[in-house]
């Protein structure tokens, strides 16, 4: 009996060691975040083991587990009509609130979900719930884009899926079918979806044949660059739950169908060293020492290699392709962007991506709202349903919807 108690105590200690992470004191619901992160890590490690054994791709297994778990927490709503459709070959989910009184036309939000271009779905409960609440709160038609995922396809296919679906919806006859006001349309997305939303918005702004354009863009902790993995937020939050730095680098490699052997070189910015000629013209567009306020720069120092590996850019030219890294767009493109909302979280490696994009847009003459949360973490806005319900999720979602309500 005594041996059993000793073993139990040892297992409990090991579990506590696995779960515990030193988190900033400002993070909301810290123990719940630790538990969720420990679950994520355990699942990811299992999926990587399956991948290593060559039984299946780890992202396919991870998505299977997400969908299996998701079936247990589906949330329906009789106040919003939810239908699936196909827009120019791309699957979408459309959320339509009932007509109110003599209202003829509704505003609309095109939403692109996150998940590292590889995970989740417009049909999962987390995004289904977010889009349903957005549609109901704004009395707006929400179109959630179901773009294809890694490893089925890689860049630029996700971008083209999002672009095709958006351009199809912006056609006058399609807007009329859904009773949408063509002058009150926003394009939005979170994380990798924010990346796609920003890239699509840039592409639309340069399309001279487009009749109808988005009025707004709303980007939620967007991932916008793969040029510098040592911005202050990448250094500060390199081991933060949900999206540590090495995981974000892995998502980029998967998105570009690259080699994992390049991960360390990317981490230390070998791909954008001073001797990498292809990167020189972009350096000024991502100079965080001038784009970030001192409150974000803190005491962090730039990591700029003198000698790096130019062959990385040769192998993965998409690292400098603005369709994949919208933060590197030229000023002439940024000047064409619509009124913009960018939500950032202090405890997120991607914080500075959003802050720098806000500053570059502002410098280009675009009206920008930067909505920063000191106590929140990456991905929090979709975590509002038990058992992954966080006060940070409700807080950020309400702020996002409030801005759309006031500006759309």
UniProtKB/TrEMBL annotation:
<dbReference type="InterPro" id="IPR013094">
    <property type="entry name" value="AB_hydrolase_3"/>
</dbReference>
<keyword id="KW-0472">Membrane</keyword>
<keyword id="KW-1133">Transmembrane helix</keyword>
<keyword id="KW-0378">Hydrolase</keyword>
<dbReference type="InterPro" id="IPR029058">
    <property type="entry name" value="AB_hydrolase_fold"/>
</dbReference>
<dbReference type="InterPro" id="IPR033140">
    <property type="entry name" value="Lipase_GDXG_put_SER_AS"/>
</dbReference>
<dbReference type="InterPro" id="IPR017157">
    <property type="entry name" value="Arylacetamide_deacetylase"/>
</dbReference>
<keyword id="KW-0442">Lipid degradation</keyword>
<dbReference type="InterPro" id="IPR050300">
    <property type="entry name" value="GDXG_lipolytic_enzyme"/>
</dbReference>
<keyword id="KW-0812">Transmembrane</keyword>
<keyword id="KW-0492">Microsome</keyword>
<keyword id="KW-1003">Cell membrane</keyword>
<feature type="active site">
    <location>
        <position position="348"/>
    </location>
</feature>
<dbReference type="Pfam" id="PF07859">
    <property type="entry name" value="Abhydrolase_3"/>
</dbReference>
<feature type="domain" description="Alpha/beta hydrolase fold-3">
    <location>
        <begin position="321"/>
        <end position="381"/>
    </location>
</feature>
<feature type="active site">
    <location>
        <position position="378"/>
    </location>
</feature>
<keyword id="KW-0443">Lipid metabolism</keyword>
<comment type="similarity">
    <text>Belongs to the 'GDXG' lipolytic enzyme family.</text>
</comment>
<keyword id="KW-0735">Signal-anchor</keyword>
<dbReference type="GO" id="GO:0047378">
    <property type="term" value="F:acetylalkylglycerol acetylhydrolase activity"/>
</dbReference>
<dbReference type="GO" id="GO:0005886">
    <property type="term" value="C:plasma membrane"/>
</dbReference>
<feature type="active site">
    <location>
        <position position="191"/>
    </location>
</feature>
<protein>
    <recommendedName>
        <fullName>Neutral cholesterol ester hydrolase 1</fullName>
        <ecNumber>3.1.1.71</ecNumber>
    </recommendedName>
</protein>
<keyword id="KW-0256">Endoplasmic reticulum</keyword>
<keyword id="KW-0325">Glycoprotein</keyword>
<feature type="domain" description="Alpha/beta hydrolase fold-3">
    <location>
        <begin position="109"/>
        <end position="267"/>
    </location>
</feature>
<dbReference type="GO" id="GO:0016042">
    <property type="term" value="P:lipid catabolic process"/>
</dbReference>
């Amino acid at each position: 009996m005594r041996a059993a108690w000793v073993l139990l105590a040892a297992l409990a200690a090991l579990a506590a060691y696995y779960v515990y992470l030193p988190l900033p004191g400002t993070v909301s619901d810290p123990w719940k975040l630790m538990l969720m992160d420990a679950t994520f890590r355990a699942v990811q490690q299992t999926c990587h083991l399956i991948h290593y054994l060559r039984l299946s791709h780890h992202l396919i297994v991870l998505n299977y587990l997400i969908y299996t778990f998701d079936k247990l927490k589906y949330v329906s709503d009789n106040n919003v009509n939810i239908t699936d459709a196909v827009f120019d070959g791309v699957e979408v989910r459309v959320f339509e609130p009932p007509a109110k009184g003599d209202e003829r036309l509704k505003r609309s939000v095109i939403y692109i979900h996150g998940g590292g271009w590889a995970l989740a779905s417009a049909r999962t409960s987390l995004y289904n719930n977010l889009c349903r609440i957005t549609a109901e709160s704004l009395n707006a038609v929400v179109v959630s884009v179901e773009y294809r995922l890694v490893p089925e396809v890689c860049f630029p296919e996700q971008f083209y899926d999002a672009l095709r679906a958006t351009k199809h919806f912006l056609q006058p006859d399609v807007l009329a079918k859904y009773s949408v006001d063509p002058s009150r349309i926003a394009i939005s997305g979170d994380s990798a979806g924010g990346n796609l939303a920003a890239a699509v918005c840039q592409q639309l702004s340069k399309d001279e044949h487009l009749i109808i354009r988005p009025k707004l863009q709303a980007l939620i902790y967007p991932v916008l660059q793969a040029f510098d993995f040592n911005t202050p937020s990448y250094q500060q939050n390199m081991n933060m739950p949900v999206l540590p730095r090495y995981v974000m680098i892995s998502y980029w490699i998967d998105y570009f169908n690259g080699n994992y052997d390049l991960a360390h070189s990317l981490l230390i910015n070998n791909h954008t060293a001073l001797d990498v000629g292809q990167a020189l013209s972009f350096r000024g567009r991502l100079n965080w020492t001038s784009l970030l306020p001192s409150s974000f720069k803190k005491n962090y120092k730039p990591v700029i290699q003198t000698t790096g590996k130019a062959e990385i850019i040769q192998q993965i030219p998409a690292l400098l392709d603005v369709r994949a890294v919208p933060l590197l767009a030229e000023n002439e493109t940024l000047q064409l962007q619509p009124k913009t909302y960018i939500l950032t979280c202090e405890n997120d490696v991607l914080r500075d991506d959003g802050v720098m994009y806000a500053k570059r847009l502002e410098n280009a003459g675009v009206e920008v709202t930067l909505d920063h949360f000191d106590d929140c973490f990456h991905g929090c806005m979709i975590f509002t349903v038990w058992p992954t319900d966080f006060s940070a999720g409700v807080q950020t979602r309400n702020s996002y919807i409030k801005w759309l309500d006031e500006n759309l």
